[in-house]
Write a structure and sequence with these properties.
The protein is an alpha+beta fold and 371 residues long. The protein is 16% helix and 35% strand. It has helices spanning 5-11, 27-44, 58-64, 268-278, 345-361; strands at 22-23, 85-88, 94-101, 110-118, 124-128, 141-145, 148-152, 168-172, 178-180, 184-185, 190-192, 195-199, 204-208, 211-216, 219-227, 232-235, 240-243, 250-255, 261-264, 289-292, 305-310, 314-319, 322-329, 332-337, 366-369. Strand 21 and strand 22 form a beta hairpin. The radius of gyration is 24 Å and the shape is globular.
Length: 371
């Protein structure tokens, strides 16, 4: 499909629909979908196609039109996205819902609220929706039940999230009309990155895993991202949530200030020396990564049994028979206590590991209680 410069300029940015739905007949968008799908199919088939001239990313388009470095109009619409659901229907259609491109730091960062239909033979249909009806959505789940896709959860834009609630929408797969659904009962919260499946016996969608944005336990005015350890069921007919498990697991994070990151290493001394040789004039406190050894941060004053110690991934230990995982997550050291250690046992363990981390790296750190 040939897309001229004038067509590209007229269609280059994201736009919201004005109807429920609005068919977006935009040649540039449709080409971006086809090219991204062709590239994805080649990747799955392990076929390399260098120089194929496909427009998969905004960078590809900028290079084609000589616009590299031109970010004055805003993000270029694309189909190279993260956190998108993909549902294949019995009639051969594939339904893609929303997704985002890159993260906030990228000039082409955008979270979408469109629905893209690929039909057998390669035809493309794109549907848009009013922003206030269907907000930009990513890292949700889409579960096919009857003639509807039930969409649960999302990350969404910062400032547009509502901890303590769980967004639920229904998409009619014949008309592509989307409607919000009631979400009450014991909700999982502002959840994303989870799994979902329909349980016919319950007549409900069961979700598990993922992460939740929630008020910090020790300061409700702040928000934290915590793991979801429990399972929940969404009963669609009653539009009500039911909590299926209450594991009571505890979740802590040890972090460095100023967005610095930890990295596990089997030779942290060697990594520190290497960084000093690369940046001899830089203050060690300014290093992006602080290297630590897993074995060096294990509890010293609390008895434990080691199930596994991986120098690059973290550790699995047991304390008083309770499994504990110590890993690296988003640049911090994540501690998950998978049971009840009684009283302040979990907090004491987390503080002990904090003390060991600070001793190993020689830096003051922050201990966050996430759950």
């Amino acid at each position: 499909m040939k897309v001229t410069r004038s067509t590209f300029q007229a269609q280059r940015t994201r736009r919201f629909g004005v109807a429920n739905p609005e068919r977006m007949r935009l040649a540039f968008w449709e080409r971006m979908v086809r090219d991204a799908e062709a590239a994805r199919a080649d990747e799955e088939a392990e076929i390399e196609t260098p120089g194929a001239g496909r427009w998969r990313t905004p960078y590809d388009v900028r290079c084609h039109f000589g616009l590299d470095g031109d970010y004055s109009v805003g993000p270029i619409w694309c189909f190279d996205r993260m956190g998108m659901s993909r549902t294949e229907l019995a009639d051969g259609r594939t339904i893609y819902i929303t997704k985002k491109h890159k993260d906030y730091y990228d000039p082409d960062f955008c979270i979408y609220n469109d629905v893209v239909i690929l039909r057998p033979g390669g035809s493309v249909e794109i549907y848009g929706y009013p922003e206030d009806l269907f907000p930009p959505t990513d890292f949700h789940t889409a579960t096919l039940v009857g003639g509807r896709l039930i969409l649960i959860g999302r990350v969404g834009y910062n400032g547009k999230r509502h901890p303590g609630t769980t967004p639920v929408f229904a998409l009619d797969v014949s008309r592509y009309r989307i409607e919000p659904m009631s979400s009450r009962g014991e909700v999982p919260g502002w959840i994303f990155g989870h799994e979902a499946e329909f349980d016919p016996a319950r007549g409900a969608i069961v979700i598990r895993g993922g992460e939740v944005e929630a008020p910090a336990p020790d300061d409700p005015s702040k928000r934290v991202i915590r793991r979801n350890f429990d399972e929940y069921a969404y009963h669609m007919d009653a539009a009500i949530w039911e909590r299926l498990t209450t594991k009571g697991w505890r979740h802590f994070s040890i972090r460095l200030p100023r967005r610095k990151r930890f990295s596990f290493s089997d030779r942290p001394d060697l990594m520190r020396e290497l960084m000093r040789s690369i940046h001899p004039d830089r203050d060690p406190a300014e290093d992006i990564f602080t290297y630590i050894e897993v074995a060096a941060i294990m509890p010293e004053t609390i008895a434990y049994q080691a199930a596994s110690l991986d120098p690059h991934q973290g550790a699995r230990i047991t304390v008083d028979g309770v499994p504990v995982s110590i890993g690296n997550d988003a640049g911090g050291i994540e501690i998950i206590v998978e049971g009840d250690l009684g009283g302040d046992g979990a907090e004491a363990l987390a503080r002990e590991i904090l003390r060991r981390v600070e001793a190993d790296c020689g830096r003051s750190c922050i201990l966050e209680t996430l759950a």
